[in-house]
Q: What sequence folds into this?
């Protein structure tokens, strides 16, 4: 379930030559300072590393590193468990000559990739909130290809949902059709790596992840009980979709423009004003896309979190 991660660690300066050779780092200078960083090779290797003094910083995708070890290519479109992620992290630390107790994580992502029955943008189109926070269309992507909660520097936690099939195709890759990806991004962190890889901590953040994404708010249509006229149901569905304020503003403008009679406008206004009571006559219907998404989310969550993590011997 882990994807991108940034690790900062203290290292033994005697190990620098080994780290440089293992990871194809280049020597750089900045004034009197000599430091080491990844070359363009990192784009194929999957790890971006920098060493300054006795401090090492590594940015990578644990999911992609796991995939590379398994199938020989960087890929995060297939399922991955926390147990697989922890094994990959331990292998990475050996490659970096870093001890678990000397490392902290400053950034990490937890995500799930889901294969669904329809294109991912059909699901993204229907969602508006996650865990009580508004999902905005990401301006860097076409509409309904990616939505995120607010990403300002004041938020240490960001929720992101996107069309993985579209993202891959834009990069000239093919991961299959109808692939939806959901991620929780944790920024500005300082979590000891030994804590992050502990089973209790993983179960905790896994539960938080599932709770947040199970509360993803889909658009739901209204159905009415006995005695409700179709014209009233149409009004109710529109108010449910756009809200009382926008509903009244829309039809007031139509009245002022002469497109509605005074009686029609007053009927709509009175219906909107009585909405808190009127709302009790209607029930929300859970759509097929929401049902499918939640079933897949639960299945993927159980696979990712339940797989036991063996303690290091």
A:
């Amino acid at each position: 379930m882990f994807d991108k991660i940034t690790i900062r660690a203290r290292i033994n300066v005697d190990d620098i030559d080994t780290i440089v050779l293992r990871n194809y780092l280049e020597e750089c200078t900045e004034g009197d300072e000599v430091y080491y960083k990844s070359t363009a090779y990192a784009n194929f290797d999957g790890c971006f590393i920098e060493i300054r003094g006795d401090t090492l910083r590594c940015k990578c995708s644990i999911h992609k590193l796991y995939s590379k070890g398994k199938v020989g290519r960087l890929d995060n479109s297939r399922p991955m468990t926390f147990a697989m992620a922890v094994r990959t992290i331990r292998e990475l630390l050996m490659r970096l000559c870093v001890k678990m107790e000397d490392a902290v994580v400053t950034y990490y992502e937890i995500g799930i990739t889901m294969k669904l029955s329809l294109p991912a943008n059909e699901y993204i189109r229907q969602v508006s909130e996650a865990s009580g926070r508004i999902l905005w269309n990401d301006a860097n992507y076409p509409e309904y290809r990616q939505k995120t909660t607010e990403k300002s520097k004041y938020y240490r936690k960001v929720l992101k949902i996107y069309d993985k099939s579209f993202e891959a195709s834009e990069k000239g890759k093919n991961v299959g059709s109808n692939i939806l990806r959901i991620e929780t991004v944790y920024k500005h962190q300082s979590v000891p790596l030994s804590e992050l890889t502990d089973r209790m901590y993983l179960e905790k953040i896994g539960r938080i992840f599932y709770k947040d994404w199970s509360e993803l708010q889909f658009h739901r249509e209204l159905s009415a009980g006995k005695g409700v006229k179709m014209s009233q149901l149409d009004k109710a569905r529109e108010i449910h979709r756009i809200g009382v304020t926008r509903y009244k503003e829309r039809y007031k403008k139509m009245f002022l423009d002469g497109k509605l009679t005074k009686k029609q406008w007053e009927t709509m206004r009175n219906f909107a004003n009585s909405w808190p009571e009127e709302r009790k006559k209607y029930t929300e219907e859970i759509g097929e896309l929401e049902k499918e998404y939640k079933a897949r989310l639960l299945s993927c969550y159980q696979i990712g979190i339940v797989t036991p993590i063996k303690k290091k011997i």
Observations:
- The chain has 13 helices and 16 strands.
- The longest strand covers residues 103-115.
